[in-house]
Amino acid sequence: MAQYDNCAADYVLAKKDSFRVDVEYFTFLHRMLLPVFQQQNANVQQDQLLAGKRVLDLACGDGHYTRKLKEHLGASEVVGVDISQAMIDIARAKEQAQPLGIIYEVADVQSLSSPAVKYDVITAFYLLNFARTNEELKRMVTATSNNLADGQTFFAIITNVCGDESTYNNEKHRKYAFMREAKLKNGFLSDGDEVKYTHFNDRDKTSFSYITYYLSPKTYEQVFKEAGFKTFQWVPFESDPKVEDRAFYDDFVQYAPAIGIIASK
Ligand SMILES: C[S@@+](CC[C@H](N)C(=O)[O-])C[C@H]1O[C@@H](n2cnc3c(N)ncnc32)[C@H](O)[C@@H]1O
Questions:
Q1: Which of 12, 29, 113, 122 is deepest in the core (most CB within 10 A)?
Q2: Which domains does the chain have, with CATH numbers?
Q3: In whole angstroms, how far apart are CA 149 and each of 96, 163, 180, 264?
Q4: Which GO terms describe its molecular function (predicted)?
């Protein structure tokens, strides 16, 4: 059974946390998508950013971001895939309730086939951090590369592998509604080490956890290169300058649970 089959409903609730909007989506839109697409067309409107583009959203989960790609960013066609049947069931139920024309499929990205017509944009929010080994990461990134048209860009967000040791086992994170636990050796993690994430939902005092896997920044960069990506850029999380509680978020992003990747073929 896929890890997310057990906590699909909890995960959907956690998506309502303000950090998802004020930090995660802000970074994705303003520090990842806009800089790339404004280079092509400086006057492009936000709601038309993906106009005319076929987009593949890997590990789409319940369709939280998959829907935004179409509804808020104007993508012409969107396909979402996820290994978890429970997640895809929720995504399809949302599509049925409010149709946007998005197609959802259950699939393991590691064994995704290559389409006849490749995608113009591929996104993956929290997929790559489930690769347990260099080889699994390579299969995911190669499948992504095989689905992406030449010259086009892959936007990924992964759990933060670039933070120092203070970002692990730090009780301070409890106030940010998450904890990241790992067994460090001499202050370091090695490729394949488990990292347990727990999200706390303060509204109903519940929490849920899942296991991700550490692979070093160097391993990521090497794997992307081997899979045929010509450029690779890390994008640290930033918060929306308009958030009310600036001090809280300035502190939060120093321990950011996630980081972005922009890679072009
Ligand atoms: C943290 S959730 C993110 C969901 C969604 N992208 C979002 O940000 O709301 C991670 C998702 O990755 C999916 N996943 C993990 N390994 C996968 C794989 N090998 N192929 C496809 N999906 C996978 C899980 O089932 C889960 O839905």
A1: 122
A2: 3-162+217-264 (3.40.50.150)
A3: 30, 32, 36, 10
A4: methyltransferase activity
**Structure tokens that stand for 74 in this block:** 């104007």
Q: Which of 127, 136, 210 to mutate to test the pocket of ligand 1 (most atoms within 8 A of CB)?
A: 127
Pick the residue whose CA is nearest to atom 13 on ligand 1.
59
Task: State which ligand 1 atom lies nearest to the alpha carbon of 140.
Answer: 19
Structure confidence at residue 202 (pLDDT):
67
Q: In this predicted model, what pLDDT tens digit does every residue of 155-189 receive, in sequence order?
A: 999 999 998 888 889 887 777 778 899 999 998 99
Q: Given the CA of residue 15, which atom of ligand 1 is nearest to it?
A: 9
Which of 138, 65, 130 is closest to 100 using CA atoms? 65
**Rounded to the nearest whole angstrom, what is the distance from the C-alpha of residue 85 to the centroid of ligand 1?**
11
Q: How far apart are CA 208 and CA 199, in angstroms?
A: 6
Residue 202 class from Cβ within 10 Å (0-12 exposed, 13-18 middle, 19+ buried)?
A: exposed
Nearest 5°: the CA angle 54, 60, 62 is: 125
Position of tokens 């086992």?
169
